[in-house]
Amino acid sequence: MPTNHLYILWTNDNLITAENMVMMYAINAKKHAWWQEVTVIIWGATAKLVAENKTIQELIIQGKQEGVVFSACKACAANLGVTETLLDLGIEVLFWGEPLTKLLKNEEKLLTI
What is the pTM (predicted TM-score) of this model? Predict the structure, then answer.
């Protein structure tokens, strides 16, 4: 049975892309049941964008209300000094290297932005 879980690996910190692709698609994918589960993986520069941008924070709250899961790379968050801010936003923070490798090896549905 094919998986109905989409993972979005979000590494692009461009605000226009964040608002008009990542958040728009993730929220609508849950709202309209295009995917049963949607997980957005915040990696690299996006951790800083999320920690500093109120519009993105509001979209994350909206996404969470729709059932989107947000998870951030712990190493990236630590390197950028934003771990506490991400945790305060209710975003799980964990080391994503091994889980991402497993997703790739299992040929899970992964959209990379």
Answer: 0.96
Dihedral angle, C-alpha 21, 72, 106, 25, nearest 10 °: -20
Report how far residue 47's alpha carbon sits from residue 21's, in angstroms, rounded to the nearest whole number. Answer: 17
61-113, pLDDT tens digit by residue? 999 999 999 999 999 999 999 999 999 999 999 999 999 999 999 999 999 99
Q: Which residues of 5-37 are buried (b: 16+ CB within 10 A; e: fewer)?
A: ebbbbbebbeeeebeebbbebbbebbeeeebee
Q: How many other C-beta atoms are found inside a 10 Å radius of the C-beta of residue 110? A: 16
